[in-house]
Design a protein that fits this description.
Layout: E1 2-7, E2 10-14, E3 19-23, E4 33-36, E5 39-43, E6 48-50, E7 59-69, E8 73-79, E9 84-90, E10 93-103, H1 111-136
Antiparallel strand pairs: 1-2, 1-5, 3-10, 4-7, 5-6, 7-10, 8-9
Length: 137
């Protein structure tokens, strides 16, 4: 069983027990539980569901393990014969996330998170309805 999720503008193929490296999510810290609600594709070994653009009845639950840094990138500007040199370094920060659960219905999420999951699904359906109304007008 696997799913393809969207987080931070990027797509990830995830399955239960897998660790992924995503960009930092604001207002989250180590040890927090994350519910990914933007599911593009779900495969449970019997059937494949494809979202248009997202699936409404699937949630992926993950736990933030730690905050890590990527490798150092160097940007170097140089103009010959002008004594112009600029060296800039950058290290991107990431979250390492362990995928705990891929559930097909909001009711199968743990009881403490079920209200949050239902709210996510309701807001997503509301935004779809408003975008459909504006498209028809």
């Amino acid at each position: 069983m696997f799913a393809i999720i969207e987080s931070g503008g990027k797509q990830y193929r995830v399955s239960i027990g897998e660790k992924i490296k995503t960009e930092i999510i604001p207002s989250k810290k180590e040890g927090d539980i994350i519910l990914f609600d933007k599911i593009l594709l779900f495969n449970n070994d019997k059937e494949v569901q494809i979202g248009t653009p997202y699936l409404d009845n699937i949630l992926v639950k993950g736990e933030i393990l730690k905050k890590i840094k990527g490798e150092k990138l160097i940007a170097f500007k140089y103009k010959p014969k002008k004594r112009y040199r600029r060296k800039i370094g950058h290290r991107q920060q990431y979250f390492e996330i362990l995928i705990k659960d891929i559930s097909q219905k909001a009711s199968s999420v743990s009881s403490e998170k079920s209200e949050e999951a239902n709210d996510i699904l309701k807001t997503r359906s509301k935004t779809k309805k408003t975008s459909q109304k504006s498209a028809t007008e």
